[in-house]
Write a structure and sequence with these properties.
This protein is mainly α and 162 residues long. It has a domain at 67-129. The chain has 5 helices and no strands. The longest helix is centred in the N-terminal third of the chain and has 26 residues, at 12-37. The N and C termini lie far apart (83 Å). The mean pLDDT is 80.
């Protein structure tokens, strides 16, 4: 009998599967133990809606200002610029390339990056001129909601926790 190769070898995918199953078991046991040992003491204050430490005004279904999306897109645009600037800076500083091209490489890469930044600045100027960066805060609309819970009940809770 040749015992040099075991008949019970696990392939690389099998090892990954074992780690995956082990991770799921570990998480399940961790969540189960946490559920068993955590305190469970609900009260009126814990059951209230939490909104950044403030009492919520109105309903959660309110109109969202679309300018948040525009600001997020402009932020992403400039984050992508940073991603492109870092490799450019490392290649630009390569002394071997600069010496091999008699300094032409340095001037070419500098001009390339100036054009790149000017295009981004042009996009920012376009957004600025068209008023996309102006922030106008809309007046909040307080909506009356038909609730089965009497308003006096809410008032007593609010007075209790002032």
């Amino acid at each position: 009998m040749d015992h040099s190769v075991s008949q019970y070898t696990i392939s690389e995918f099998g090892k990954i599967l074992l780690f995956f199953i082990g991770g799921i078991i570990f998480l399940s046991i961790s969540f189960l133990v946490a559920r068993l040992i955590r305190p469970n003491r609900p009260n009126e204050q814990k059951l209230e809606t939490y909104e950044s430490g403030e009492q919520p005004i109105g309903t959660g279904w309110s109109q969202f200002n679309m300018r948040f999306y525009i600001v997020a897109l402009i932020f992403i645009l400039f984050e992508v610029e940073i991603v492109f600037l870092f490799p450019w800076a490392t290649v630009f500083a390569n002394k071997e390339l600069i010496e091999q091209t008699n300094g032409l490489w340095g001037w070419f890469s500098l001009l390339e990056m100036i054009i790149f930044i000017l295009i981004l600045a042009l996009g920012l100027a376009y957004a600025w001129v068209n008023g996309l960066l102006d922030w106008v805060k809309p007046a909040p609309k307080k909506e009356d909601i038909a609730s089965v819970v009497p308003k006096e009940f809410y008032n007593t809770i609010n007075e209790k926790y002032k």
